[in-house]
Amino acid sequence: MPLDSSLYQFSLLRTDGRRWNELRRVTASISTQPSTDGSSLLSMGNTTIVCTVQGPREGRGQGNNSAATLETIITIHPFAQTDRKRRGKNDKRVQRVILIGYQELQTTLTSSLSPHLQTHLYPRSTITLTHHVLSLDGSLLAALLNASTLALIDAGIPMPSLLCACTAGLIPKTSTVYTSNSTDGEVFEPVLDLTGSEEQELPFLTAGTVVGMDAVGAEEGQKTDKVATLVMESRCPLGSDGRNLEAMLAVAIDGAKQVRSILEDCVRRRGERAMR
Fold it and tell me: Which residues neighbour 137 within 8 Å (Cβ) at sequence distance 6 or greater?
């Protein structure tokens, strides 16, 4: 069913009442599963993720003699989506909501987190990340990355900074009804943190950022956001000189910065409770 964007043209409000640069409600907590080495519970709107960490522990087989091996397991429960279809963790079929399968999603998580963690401190070890998707309404990859970051912090895995992610898309500014095939001649505007219904119709991407130091062109010691993960979730109309892509990326980076502030407050509150 095509997404009706007529409300956005007149009031600049999306179907859920948010403006283009507003995040959905983000709540986070850590140490939710005492039986694991690290755990977190994160909600971005109606998307809820429980992440647990096991390890570092002795690896299976020969393993990597120079660094730990990161494993990811994702389970989307049948009650998480409206279609209520049972899907196993090894299902390779393309998912209608996120357009990538389990195996590709797990590979994306592993390739995003592994270079960011200081796994060289745990040679011949294995770190297992298990994700349970309790509710799904868009921004799945971003929520998985954010929940993983909190769980790894709770497990004491060292990392230089928080890896935070957010989605951004393009909504038509002139046409009344938008479909995935009607991209020619349209005028688009970037929007932040897409819902499930928006992701099914609008082009969007997911960007994850980390805080870096001494970036090119920045003052010495100034902190800047560096893009660590960038996944184009669907086909995107580039526009003139690629301005649509540039606008989406800028909005996603700003959203990741807002998410980082929320996650840092969560970690800080946990540390204060532990020190009491």
Answer: 45, 46, 47, 195, 196
Residues in the chain with pLDDT < 50? Answer: 1, 89, 92-100, 175-184, 215, 217
Contacts of 79 (CB under 8 A, 6+ apart): 134
Alpha-carbon distance of 227 to 208, in angstroms, equals 6
Query: 151 is written with which tokens?
Result: 């769980």
Q: What angle do CA 101, 141, 83 make, to 5 degrees?
A: 55
Tokens of 31: 């140490």
Residue 150 belongs to what H/E stretch?
Answer: helix 140-155
Contacts of residue 272, Cβ cutoff 8 Å, sequence gap at least 6 = none
pLDDT score recorded for residue 177 = 45
Model pTM?
0.85
DSSP-derived 3-state class of residue 1: coil
Whether the Cβ atoms of residue 108 and residue 100 lie closer than 8 Å to each other: yes
Question: Order of strands across the sheet with 164-172?
Answer: 188-192, 164-172, 204-213, 223-232
77-98 residue pLDDT tens: 888 876 655 555 455 443 443 4
- The single-letter code of the amino acid at 238 is L
Q: Say what the pLDDT of residue 96 is.
A: 40
Q: pLDDT tens across 202-228, in order?
A: 889 999 999 875 545 455 556 788 899
- Residue 15 has what pLDDT? 80
Task: Supply the angle between the helices 102-113 and 140-155 in degrees, to the nearest 10.
Answer: 50
Cα separation of 114 and 87, whole Å? 26
Unique residue bearing structure tokens 């992610």: 165
Whole-number Å distance between alpha carbons of 52 and 31: 9
Q: Per 3-state DSSP, what percentage of the chain is helix, strand, and coil (rounded to 5)?
A: 30, 30, 40
Neighbours of 220 (CB within 10 A): 6
